[in-house]
Amino acid sequence: MTVAQTSFRPTDVRILEASHDFEDFRLRMPYQFGGRTIAHLTLLNVSVLVRNGSGRQARGAGSMPLGNAWAFPSSRVNHDQSLRAMRVLAERIASIIGRHPQRAHPIDLYHSLEPLYLEAAVQVSAENGLAEPIPKLCALVVASAFDLAIHDAFGRVNGVNAYRAYGPEFMDRDLSHYLGEDFKGEWLDRYLRRSPAAYLHLYHSVGASDPLDSPEGAPALEDGLPQTLAEWIAAEGLTHFKVKLNGGDLRLDVDRMVDIERVVSAGQEKRGGREWKYSLDFNEGCRTVDYLLDFLEEIERRAPSVKARLQYVEQPTSRNLTGPPRILLHRAARKVPLVADEALVDLESFRLARQVGYSGVALKTCKGQSQSLLLAAAAQKYGAYLCVQDLTCPGLSLVHSAGLAAHLPGVHALEANSRQYIPSANRLWKSRFPALFQITDGRLGTGGLTGTGLGTG
Predict the structure, then answer these.
(1) Does 315 reside within a domain?
(2) Cross-strand bridge partners of residue 226
(3) How far is residue 32's CA from residue 206's CA, in Å, rounded to a whole number?
(4) Contact between residue 385 and residue 312 where contact means Cβ atoms under 8 Å apart
């Protein structure tokens, strides 16, 4: 709902126009997660033109993969249908934004626009005869590129890095307006680094079907890039590993983790490394909390060194937090931090996730810059574990994802797997931010994201 304004700041912006296009990419190797495999990716690119209260105009840009396999998994709506629906929804959102009359800070623009995005998703679902309606998560993914572009344009038109524009100098309302009375008198900039971290550890994704120390059985690649996990470790000095497990077969999941620890251990020994970390992502594959508990028990028995290196487990069970059945995770959370990802779509789901036992949250720019910033504040306020994840974001979308992670206190690592699966989509940005796209010592260089807008101006 749009809140009536009686006065405007000179920095407030109105959107004059929004445009977008799509790019299609084939992955250099299949990426398997949560029992699903993707081989293609469609990238949504957005440009918005804004004018501030001083009459200046500037363009901002945003980009996001349309990750329908993750955002709209369904047995009744096939991959092509859900992807087509997302493309149509992008058209609707561009139209909504282009005629939106409000002049405000990007956070307030998003606050009034999100209900319109969700209404458009309902309409697109009905008009396209989808057997299931577009989920909220899916609508957020489409809208995220537009939201990023608005934040970017806001910073550019006002000549400021957007991460320095989330305090009372630029915003009318404190956090209590968005997050409740616990935040009275607090502003968003309280929960952000003023300047980006110099670097982040790279969380290298180990897809459920990625080769570990032999390419045998994998597609033959002759592009000069590493193919096996062992080769990636040697080439980039990796120290953090995000392991995708499918769930459903305890023996296979445990064997896979034991094999990964063997390969990583050997790779670290060769490079003289002593410290490495894991996170595990089941992408909802555990049907019960007992499956996760059995997995952790078996890992402790067969590869006890993994337990000490395990930082968190991501979204082990269904994204449906209310059931049926309602799965309570407290017993597992006492053993390892559990972070909600697919389940996290708004402040209410954050609260529900904590009630069922989640220790923390996985933030992603694909759920919107505005929402990610607000949930980051909520997570810090209530002592939740905080991490930032990726949607195989390439190019500009990776720059923006890294910018978010680099400005959040307590976040020290970021998944960034486009270099593994679609490196061709990084070419235009690799020369602009080489430290971000050329991995050395297992780290992403994020200290250079200090320009206007979302760091690229």
Answers:
(1) yes
(2) none
(3) 9
(4) yes
Q: Comparing C-alpha atoms, which of 203, 96, 113 is closest to residue 151?
A: 113
**CA 362 to each of CA 47, 224, 387: distance values in angstroms, whole numbers, following the listed order:** 27, 33, 5
| Residue 1 in domain | no
Residues 6+ apart with CB under 8 A from 235: 226
CATH number at residue 100: 3.30.390.10
Q: Do 197 and 55 share a domain, yes or no?
A: no
Report the distance separating Cα 125 and Cα 114, nearest Å.
17
pTM given for the model: 0.97
Whether the link from the prior residue into 65 is cis, omega within 30° of 0, is no
Question: Tens of pLDDT along 291-334?
Answer: 999 999 999 999 999 999 999 999 999 999 999 999 999 999 99
Domain stop point among 122, 149, 179: 179
> How far is the C-alpha of 188 from the C-alpha of 260, rounded, in Å?
40
Q: What is the pLDDT of residues 191-203, one digit of tens each?
A: 999 999 999 999 9
- Beta-carbon contacts of 89 under 8 Å, excluding residues fewer than 6 positions away, are 120, 121, 124, 134, 139, 142
What residue spans of 99-241 are helical by DSSP H?
Answer: 106-127, 136-157, 176-179, 229-236
Which residue(s) pair with 443 in the sheet?
A: 201, 440
Note whether 414 and 291 are same-domain residues.
Answer: yes
